[in-house]
Design brief:
elongated; mainly alpha; 86% helix
């Protein structure tokens, strides 16, 4: 009679083999056929320019945000200065 431990071990080995079988099949598959040379050249040529445009756009937005913040800060300082001058006169 087979003990419980042996049954559990056998079940574990079988389930592991079933679980790993798709992985071994994928590893045994040959590499996919290479793509024609003309197709990949056109696609990457547009992608970097789009990335450059996005980067430039992002940089411009950040610069605009910094300028806006600096302007606000200057206005706030001027307002505070005017208020201090007004209270000094009184």
């Amino acid at each position: 009679m087979i003990s419980r431990f042996v049954r559990l071990s056998l079940a574990t080995v079988i389930s592991a083999a079933i679980g790993l079988s798709p992985i071994s099949v994928m590893a045994a598959d040959p590499a996919p056929a290479p793509v024609p040379v003309a197709a990949p050249i056109a696609a990457p040529a547009t992608a970097p320019s789009a990335q450059v445009d996005k980067a430039a756009e992002k940089k411009a937005k950040q610069q605009a945000k910094k300028d806006k913040k600096a302007k606000k800060r200057a206005e706030k300082k001027a307002k505070k200065k005017a208020k201090n001058a007004e209270t000094a006169q009184q």
